[in-house]
Amino acid sequence: MKQYILSSFISKDGGGNLAAVVLDDKGLSREQMLAIAKENNLSETAFVDLKSSDMKNWVIRYYTPMEEVDICGHAALASFYLLDNIGKIDSYEVFHKTKAGKLKVIKKENMFFIEMKTPEIIDFFTIDEVMDFTTLNKQDILPNKIGNISIVSTGLKDAIILVPSLRALKNTNIKKEKMIYHCNRKNIIGAHIVSRETIENDSDFAVRNFAPAVGIDEESATGTSNASLIYYAIHEGIGKRKERPYKIEQGYFMESPSNIYVYPDNNEVTEIYVGGNVKVIDSMELGVRC
Fold it and tell me: Is the confidence at residue 267, as pLDDT, over 70?
């Protein structure tokens, strides 16, 4: 059984977010998958169930070092880049069977775009709650139309917190234990801090992502949370519809500059896709007894 390490959402300067992809031809148990994910100690490990998959429909499960999650954008992107690279995909459109549902995967101009779960606003934080688990001041938190902070899901649930500048974004820190408490209370993954001011001229947003409740203090590139961001931006009227994918900067303050591309497929934003560039870092054989 082979495992690959890949970096998803790389930029021209490198960066990206590491994920492991295991080509599971053994039929691993949940306990075995979790043990491998813990050993890898990456934000996510994807397990491609080769026995249950075919070239059009791929069954994949995702684990953090602490738990299974429904879907993971950067690990999904790594999985399909790898499957294509080793000759397992023969179409520009295939499907991805996850715990978040059966989702489409499209290849455009040598880049894969992964469909996320239908976006929805599922809950809210108050500004006072956000101030309780971050170092942000009230004037640095830009609320939604009704004065709260939206929690959005495109497969995983994140609070989308808009700040007024790159400086505010860079200076943001979290109060880890309080954030874990609030995330567990709301049953969400974490918080996505967002600036409309960007480092590169052709970018649309700069972001940081914090998810200590699932063992990730800060993540350099994320898929689901940026899909949620674009849905939120269009819903709130702060992101103009574009013919091209939205470009999002992440990881720039972690010395891992990453570029995530997101596009909604229709005016109602019922379908939203996340894509980016990927590279293979390493591969190894796994000796796992079943």
Answer: no
